Amino acid sequence: MNHHTENVDLAELAKFSDLAHRWWDTESEFRPLHQINPLRLDWIHGLVSLQGQRVLDVGCGGGILADAMARKGAEVLGIDLATKSLRVAQLHALEAQTPNVSYQEISAEALAEQEPGSFDVVTCMEMMEHVPDPASIVRACAQLVKPGGWVFFSTINRNAKAFLLAIVGAEYVLNMLPKGTHEYAKFIRPSELAGHCRAAQLEVLHTRGLQYNPLTQRYWLSDDTSVNYLFATRRVG
Protein backbone atom coordinates (compact mmCIF):
# COMPACT_ATOMS: atom_id res chain seq x y z
CA MET A 1 0.00 0.00 0.00
CA ASN A 2 1.39 3.38 -0.95
CA HIS A 3 0.57 5.73 1.90
CA HIS A 4 1.84 8.71 -0.07
CA THR A 5 -1.18 8.67 -2.36
CA GLU A 6 -3.57 8.66 0.57
CA ASN A 7 -5.01 11.42 2.72
CA VAL A 8 -2.45 10.90 5.45
CA ASP A 9 0.29 12.84 7.16
CA LEU A 10 3.19 10.46 7.73
CA ALA A 11 4.60 12.56 10.57
CA GLU A 12 1.23 12.37 12.35
CA LEU A 13 1.15 8.57 11.93
CA ALA A 14 4.67 8.21 13.30
CA LYS A 15 3.76 10.39 16.28
CA PHE A 16 0.84 8.19 17.32
CA SER A 17 2.65 4.94 16.50
CA ASP A 18 5.47 5.90 18.86
CA LEU A 19 2.91 6.31 21.64
CA ALA A 20 1.01 3.13 20.82
CA HIS A 21 1.92 1.05 23.85
CA ARG A 22 0.49 3.74 26.14
CA TRP A 23 -3.01 3.93 24.60
CA TRP A 24 -4.67 1.84 27.31
CA ASP A 25 -2.72 3.30 30.22
CA THR A 26 -5.35 5.57 31.77
CA GLU A 27 -2.67 7.66 33.47
CA SER A 28 -0.65 8.23 30.28
CA GLU A 29 -0.92 11.12 27.82
CA PHE A 30 -4.07 9.38 26.54
CA ARG A 31 -5.81 9.95 29.86
CA PRO A 32 -7.98 12.74 28.35
CA LEU A 33 -9.33 10.26 25.76
CA HIS A 34 -10.24 7.81 28.50
CA GLN A 35 -11.92 10.60 30.45
CA ILE A 36 -14.00 11.95 27.56
CA ASN A 37 -14.88 8.54 26.17
CA PRO A 38 -17.97 7.95 28.36
CA LEU A 39 -19.25 11.42 27.41
CA ARG A 40 -18.82 10.73 23.69
CA LEU A 41 -20.29 7.26 23.98
CA ASP A 42 -23.38 8.32 25.95
CA TRP A 43 -24.04 11.21 23.55
CA ILE A 44 -23.87 8.93 20.52
CA HIS A 45 -25.86 6.15 22.17
CA GLY A 46 -28.48 8.69 23.30
CA LEU A 47 -29.11 9.77 19.71
CA VAL A 48 -28.97 6.33 18.11
CA SER A 49 -29.10 3.01 19.96
CA LEU A 50 -25.90 1.15 19.11
CA GLN A 51 -27.41 -2.25 19.89
CA GLY A 52 -27.22 -4.43 16.78
CA GLN A 53 -25.87 -1.60 14.60
CA ARG A 54 -22.97 -1.98 12.20
CA VAL A 55 -20.56 0.79 13.22
CA LEU A 56 -17.37 2.12 11.66
CA ASP A 57 -14.84 4.10 13.72
CA VAL A 58 -12.57 6.10 11.41
CA GLY A 59 -9.15 6.91 12.88
CA CYS A 60 -9.75 4.52 15.76
CA GLY A 61 -6.24 4.72 17.23
CA GLY A 62 -5.86 2.24 20.06
CA GLY A 63 -9.57 1.42 19.98
CA ILE A 64 -10.85 3.30 23.04
CA LEU A 65 -14.17 4.36 21.46
CA ALA A 66 -14.51 1.31 19.16
CA ASP A 67 -14.16 -1.02 22.13
CA ALA A 68 -16.77 0.91 24.14
CA MET A 69 -19.28 0.92 21.25
CA ALA A 70 -18.87 -2.84 20.82
CA ARG A 71 -19.69 -3.27 24.50
CA LYS A 72 -22.96 -1.39 23.85
CA GLY A 73 -23.94 -4.18 21.46
CA ALA A 74 -22.68 -2.79 18.14
CA GLU A 75 -20.71 -4.72 15.55
CA VAL A 76 -17.70 -2.42 15.19
CA LEU A 77 -14.96 -2.05 12.62
CA GLY A 78 -12.13 0.30 13.59
CA ILE A 79 -9.84 1.62 10.86
CA ASP A 80 -6.59 3.55 11.08
CA LEU A 81 -3.32 3.90 9.19
CA ALA A 82 -1.09 3.79 12.27
CA THR A 83 -0.05 0.12 12.31
CA LYS A 84 1.22 0.06 15.90
CA SER A 85 -1.92 1.69 17.30
CA LEU A 86 -4.04 -0.89 15.48
CA ARG A 87 -1.98 -3.73 16.93
CA VAL A 88 -2.57 -2.26 20.38
CA ALA A 89 -6.32 -2.14 19.65
CA GLN A 90 -6.32 -5.75 18.44
CA LEU A 91 -4.32 -6.93 21.43
CA HIS A 92 -6.64 -5.13 23.84
CA ALA A 93 -9.71 -6.67 22.18
CA LEU A 94 -8.17 -10.12 22.68
CA GLU A 95 -7.13 -9.50 26.27
CA ALA A 96 -10.42 -7.87 27.25
CA GLN A 97 -12.41 -10.39 25.17
CA THR A 98 -14.39 -7.57 23.61
CA PRO A 99 -17.16 -9.05 21.44
CA ASN A 100 -17.86 -7.98 17.85
CA VAL A 101 -14.96 -5.61 17.27
CA SER A 102 -12.39 -5.89 14.50
CA TYR A 103 -9.67 -3.62 13.13
CA GLN A 104 -8.27 -2.97 9.68
CA GLU A 105 -5.39 -0.89 8.34
CA ILE A 106 -7.09 1.05 5.56
CA SER A 107 -7.98 4.65 4.79
CA ALA A 108 -11.58 5.87 4.97
CA GLU A 109 -11.41 6.78 1.28
CA ALA A 110 -10.25 3.29 0.23
CA LEU A 111 -12.89 1.59 2.39
CA ALA A 112 -15.56 3.89 0.93
CA GLU A 113 -14.71 2.55 -2.53
CA GLN A 114 -14.90 -1.04 -1.30
CA GLU A 115 -17.93 -0.88 0.97
CA PRO A 116 -20.13 2.15 0.19
CA GLY A 117 -23.37 2.47 2.13
CA SER A 118 -22.64 -0.45 4.42
CA PHE A 119 -22.64 1.05 7.94
CA ASP A 120 -25.51 2.22 10.14
CA VAL A 121 -23.27 4.57 12.11
CA VAL A 122 -19.86 6.12 11.36
CA THR A 123 -17.76 7.90 13.99
CA CYS A 124 -14.70 10.05 13.31
CA MET A 125 -13.44 11.51 16.56
CA GLU A 126 -10.34 13.59 17.31
CA MET A 127 -8.93 12.71 13.92
CA MET A 128 -9.70 15.39 11.33
CA GLU A 129 -7.25 17.86 12.86
CA HIS A 130 -4.49 15.36 11.97
CA VAL A 131 -5.11 14.92 8.21
CA PRO A 132 -4.19 17.13 5.22
CA ASP A 133 -7.70 17.08 3.66
CA PRO A 134 -10.56 16.93 6.19
CA ALA A 135 -13.20 17.41 3.47
CA SER A 136 -12.09 14.14 1.89
CA ILE A 137 -12.63 12.33 5.21
CA VAL A 138 -16.13 13.82 5.53
CA ARG A 139 -16.97 12.67 1.97
CA ALA A 140 -15.69 9.17 2.70
CA CYS A 141 -17.72 8.94 5.92
CA ALA A 142 -20.82 10.05 4.02
CA GLN A 143 -20.20 7.39 1.36
CA LEU A 144 -19.67 4.68 3.97
CA VAL A 145 -22.90 5.26 5.89
CA LYS A 146 -26.30 3.99 4.72
CA PRO A 147 -28.87 6.57 3.58
CA GLY A 148 -30.49 7.89 6.76
CA GLY A 149 -27.55 6.66 8.84
CA TRP A 150 -25.67 8.72 11.41
CA VAL A 151 -22.16 10.16 11.13
CA PHE A 152 -20.52 11.65 14.24
CA PHE A 153 -17.51 13.96 14.19
CA SER A 154 -15.47 15.64 16.90
CA THR A 155 -12.57 18.00 16.46
CA ILE A 156 -11.07 21.30 17.66
CA ASN A 157 -12.16 24.80 16.70
CA ARG A 158 -9.64 27.26 15.21
CA ASN A 159 -9.55 30.48 17.20
CA ALA A 160 -7.42 32.22 19.83
CA LYS A 161 -9.16 30.48 22.73
CA ALA A 162 -8.68 27.04 21.18
CA PHE A 163 -5.02 27.83 20.56
CA LEU A 164 -4.56 28.87 24.19
CA LEU A 165 -6.46 25.94 25.69
CA ALA A 166 -5.76 23.07 23.30
CA ILE A 167 -2.14 23.86 22.52
CA VAL A 168 -0.58 26.23 25.03
CA GLY A 169 -2.68 24.99 27.96
CA ALA A 170 -3.01 21.26 27.35
CA GLU A 171 0.36 20.61 25.76
CA TYR A 172 2.73 23.04 27.41
CA VAL A 173 1.37 24.26 30.72
CA LEU A 174 -0.49 21.20 31.98
CA ASN A 175 1.63 18.61 30.12
CA MET A 176 -1.60 16.68 29.49
CA LEU A 177 -0.68 15.95 25.90
CA PRO A 178 2.70 15.43 24.23
CA LYS A 179 4.10 18.65 22.79
CA GLY A 180 3.37 18.82 19.08
CA THR A 181 0.18 16.75 19.31
CA HIS A 182 -1.82 19.51 17.63
CA GLU A 183 -1.07 21.99 14.89
CA TYR A 184 -3.14 25.15 15.04
CA ALA A 185 -3.39 25.52 11.25
CA LYS A 186 -5.12 22.13 11.04
CA PHE A 187 -7.89 23.03 13.46
CA ILE A 188 -11.34 23.28 11.84
CA ARG A 189 -14.04 25.84 12.53
CA PRO A 190 -17.58 24.48 12.98
CA SER A 191 -18.70 26.55 9.98
CA GLU A 192 -16.03 24.84 7.85
CA LEU A 193 -16.98 21.37 9.05
CA ALA A 194 -20.67 22.16 8.46
CA GLY A 195 -19.76 23.19 4.90
CA HIS A 196 -17.91 19.92 4.31
CA CYS A 197 -20.94 18.03 5.67
CA ARG A 198 -23.44 19.85 3.45
CA ALA A 199 -21.27 19.22 0.39
CA ALA A 200 -21.23 15.50 1.26
CA GLN A 201 -25.03 15.26 1.74
CA LEU A 202 -24.79 15.10 5.52
CA GLU A 203 -27.33 17.13 7.49
CA VAL A 204 -25.98 18.57 10.75
CA LEU A 205 -28.62 17.86 13.40
CA HIS A 206 -26.85 18.35 16.73
CA THR A 207 -23.72 20.13 17.93
CA ARG A 208 -22.16 19.95 21.39
CA GLY A 209 -19.12 21.46 22.99
CA LEU A 210 -16.70 19.60 25.22
CA GLN A 211 -15.35 21.53 28.18
CA TYR A 212 -12.63 20.84 30.72
CA ASN A 213 -11.84 22.27 34.12
CA PRO A 214 -8.10 21.77 34.81
CA LEU A 215 -8.55 22.33 38.56
CA THR A 216 -11.18 19.60 39.06
CA GLN A 217 -9.89 17.66 36.02
CA ARG A 218 -13.50 17.18 34.98
CA TYR A 219 -14.93 17.10 31.45
CA TRP A 220 -18.52 17.78 30.46
CA LEU A 221 -20.63 18.42 27.36
CA SER A 222 -22.18 21.88 26.93
CA ASP A 223 -23.38 24.33 24.28
CA ASP A 224 -19.97 26.01 24.15
CA THR A 225 -18.31 24.90 20.87
CA SER A 226 -15.47 27.43 21.10
CA VAL A 227 -12.75 24.81 21.68
CA ASN A 228 -13.59 21.09 21.38
CA TYR A 229 -16.87 20.28 19.68
CA LEU A 230 -18.94 17.38 18.34
CA PHE A 231 -21.30 17.12 15.36
CA ALA A 232 -24.11 14.60 14.89
CA THR A 233 -25.11 14.36 11.22
CA ARG A 234 -27.37 12.18 9.10
CA ARG A 235 -26.96 11.09 5.52
CA VAL A 236 -29.63 12.69 3.38
CA GLY A 237 -31.41 10.48 0.84
TrEMBL record:
<dbReference type="InterPro" id="IPR010233">
    <property type="entry name" value="UbiG_MeTrfase"/>
</dbReference>
<dbReference type="Pfam" id="PF13489">
    <property type="entry name" value="Methyltransf_23"/>
</dbReference>
<keyword id="KW-0830">Ubiquinone</keyword>
<comment type="similarity">
    <text>Belongs to the methyltransferase superfamily. UbiG/COQ3 family.</text>
</comment>
<feature type="binding site">
    <location>
        <position position="59"/>
    </location>
    <ligand>
        <name>S-adenosyl-L-methionine</name>
    </ligand>
</feature>
<comment type="function">
    <text>O-methyltransferase that catalyzes the 2 O-methylation steps in the ubiquinone biosynthetic pathway.</text>
</comment>
<feature type="binding site">
    <location>
        <position position="125"/>
    </location>
    <ligand>
        <name>S-adenosyl-L-methionine</name>
    </ligand>
</feature>
<dbReference type="GO" id="GO:0102208">
    <property type="term" value="F:2-polyprenyl-6-hydroxyphenol methylase activity"/>
</dbReference>
<protein>
    <recommendedName>
        <fullName>Ubiquinone biosynthesis O-methyltransferase</fullName>
        <ecNumber>2.1.1.222</ecNumber>
        <ecNumber>2.1.1.64</ecNumber>
    </recommendedName>
</protein>
<keyword id="KW-0808">Transferase</keyword>
<dbReference type="GO" id="GO:0010420">
    <property type="term" value="F:polyprenyldihydroxybenzoate methyltransferase activity"/>
</dbReference>
<keyword id="KW-0949">S-adenosyl-L-methionine</keyword>
<keyword id="KW-0489">Methyltransferase</keyword>
<dbReference type="GO" id="GO:0061542">
    <property type="term" value="F:3-demethylubiquinol 3-O-methyltransferase activity"/>
</dbReference>
<keyword id="KW-0831">Ubiquinone biosynthesis</keyword>
<feature type="binding site">
    <location>
        <position position="80"/>
    </location>
    <ligand>
        <name>S-adenosyl-L-methionine</name>
    </ligand>
</feature>
<feature type="binding site">
    <location>
        <position position="40"/>
    </location>
    <ligand>
        <name>S-adenosyl-L-methionine</name>
    </ligand>
</feature>
<dbReference type="InterPro" id="IPR029063">
    <property type="entry name" value="SAM-dependent_MTases_sf"/>
</dbReference>
<comment type="pathway">
    <text>Cofactor biosynthesis; ubiquinone biosynthesis.</text>
</comment>
<dbReference type="GO" id="GO:0032259">
    <property type="term" value="P:methylation"/>
</dbReference>
